[in-house]
Specification:
Layout (H helix, E strand, L loop, with lengths): L2 H7 L2 H13 L10 H30 L38 E15 L28 E5 L4 E10 L2 E12 L8 E12 L2 E7 L24 E11 L3 E8 L19 E4 L4 E10 L2 E16 L9 E17 L2 E11 L12 E5 L8 E5 L1 E12 L4 E12 L10 E13 L5 E14 L5 E20 L4
Antiparallel strand pairs: 1-2, 1-3, 1-20, 3-4, 4-5, 5-6, 6-7, 7-8, 8-10, 9-11, 10-11, 11-12, 12-13, 13-16, 14-15, 16-17, 17-18, 18-19, 19-20
Helix pairs in contact: 2-3
Length: 477
């Protein structure tokens, strides 16, 4: 019953009458009270007056509250009640820390890629377009024309975001089934991200600050534009500026590089050359976000060294400095069109590129030099230009062009990689928010250093992708 109604029926005077009645209705022998009994009654009356004042104040406070019931405090919510995101909310972007605090996101997708390759490619890279893996001489990977199919893009990930007294704690663990390195060509576990951030500091494996993942186009070919800076690396990073419209990131990354002995491969003098990396790579970026898109400039500097462990009188050990600059941007030309652009240039940064050869080549010293050859960083230029277009609620397309150009050293082989081109165009259908299917035409081209040979690859790919995600809410630390 409403407390206001109770109060209106039982005024302070009424309560007082009831109390005094209870006191006065006593046996006949209590009609001549003593002074002590009178004082006890007065004390009880004072207590009743105080109680009525408190009840009156509580009723007044309740009547002044809004009629809508307030939400309970977080501590009052039963532990078994789990908050969920709307079912139609998109899966968070790869490596993007969720903005919802104190939550755990489990997400992923199953994806089938199938198609027909009209030309030739290294069999270990049968389902991607990598110009570096195209033939370097006629019929190197014959025969032409092959059907391929696989589920290697299938992915699973877990992300979390938790508030702590030291700042937000964000984590990501993600893997896929696309084998590389010693597992090239296989469907097997491959770690993508194992990374955490606490406030302005982060550690683990994730995107290098030298790259910009937002430039990656909406394509179904797995490897992506060859001229894009694209590298997940183990790192320690510091983010001194981390705002919605501007950010700055600096990192120390795990070093590593590759070299090509070129014309001198197999020489006994080079048999005891061992790489040495005694300094981490230093990378960083500065980024500005606006309604029209974003622009980012990134840089890197690194030491690449090698030692001669032989006892030859001529020591071939040495080191070089690699460096690079990467300028990238996304531009929203219209509500349905987003351009993705990038230009990168550097010396000895090939392992940070999406598809490029070795970082260090062999150069010749002038005649009469004590050491006849030397290691030199190879200059590399990368270009990316793509357009993502949304036709409507269910159809999207992406198309564009990319290129990598290497300035080869004088000691490299004539058949070594010099330049590569990459281009794709697609039409994708989204029957429901978490399902995608579509086709894509793909082209790649490789040009050798100096023997005049080049090779092309053409293929059609059809993919089916099924996304899923689940979000859980938990209390803060």
């Amino acid at each position: 019953m409403n407390l206001g109604i109770i109060w209106r029926h039982f005024s302070p005077t009424t309560l007082l009458v009831f109390s005094l009645s209870a006191i006065w209705i006593q046996p006949a022998q209590a009609q001549s009270p003593s002074q002590q009994e009178i004082q006890q009654l007065k004390d009880k009356l004072q207590q009743l007056d105080q109680t009525m004042s408190e009840v009156k104040a509580q009723i007044k406070a309740l009547e002044q509250r809004p009629s809508v019931t307030a939400a309970p405090a977080p501590a009052q919510v039963p532990a078994q009640v789990v908050a969920q995101k709307p079912k139609d909310q998109a899966v968070p972007l790869e490596s993007q820390i969720t903005e919802e605090k104190n939550s755990l996101d489990i997400y992923g997708f199953a994806m089938l890629d199938s198609g027909y390759d009209f030309k030739q490619v290294d069999p270990l890279w049968f389902d991607v377009v990598r110009p570096t893996k195209l033939p370097s001489f006629p019929n190197q990977f014959a025969p032409s024309g092959n059907v391929y199919a696989g589920v290697r893009q299938t992915r699973f990930g877990v992300k979390s975001s938790t508030t702590t007294p030291l700042g937000d704690l964000n984590t990501i663990f993600e893997f896929e089934l696309f084998g590389t390195g010693v597992d090239a060509g296989q469907t097997t576990f491959r770690l993508r991200h194992a990374y955490g951030e606490l406030g302005s500091f982060g550690a683990g494996q994730t995107w290098s600050p030298f790259m910009d993942i937002d430039v990656f186009p909406n394509t179904i070919e797995y490897w992506g534009p060859n001229g894009m800076v694209f590298f997940r690396n183990v790192q320690l990073r510091w983010m001194p500026v981390r705002r919605k419209k501007a950010s700055v990131t600096i990192a120390l990354e795990r070093p590593g590089a590759s070299a090509d002995q070129g014309l001198y491969a197999g020489r006994i003098e080079l048999s005891n050359i061992t790489p040495r990396f005694n300094f981490p790579d230093l990378s960083g970026n500065a980024r500005i976000n606006r309604d029209w898109g974003h622009i980012q400039i990134a840089g890197i500097v690194r030491k690449i060294g090698w030692v001669d462990t032989s006892n030859n009188p001529i020591n071939l050990g040495d080191s070089v400095v690699g460096w690079g600059v990467n300028l990238s941007s996304t531009v929203k030309f219209a509500k349905k069109d987003v351009a993705k652009l990038e230009v990168s240039y550097g010396h000895g940064i090939e392992n940070y590129m999406n598809d490029a050869p070795v970082d260090v080549g062999v150069g010749r010293n002038p005649p009469g030099s004590l050491v006849p050859i030397k290691g030199v960083t190879l200059p590399v230029l990368g270009i990316v230009a793509f357009l993502d277009h949304t036709w409507g609620e269910r159809f999207t397309s992406s198309g564009g062009f990319s290129m990598v150009n290497i300035s080869n050293s004088g000691g490299q082989l004539p058949s070594d990689y010099h330049r590569g081109y990459y281009s794709v165009g697609n039409l994708l259908y989204h029957p429901v928010p978490k399902v995608m299917m579509g086709g894509e035409f793909q082209w790649g081209r490789r040009m050798n250093f100096s023997d005049g040979f080049d090779s092309n690859d053409y293929r059609m790919q059809f993919s089916f992708k099924y996304d899923w995600s689940k979000s859980f809410k938990f209390p803060a630390f």
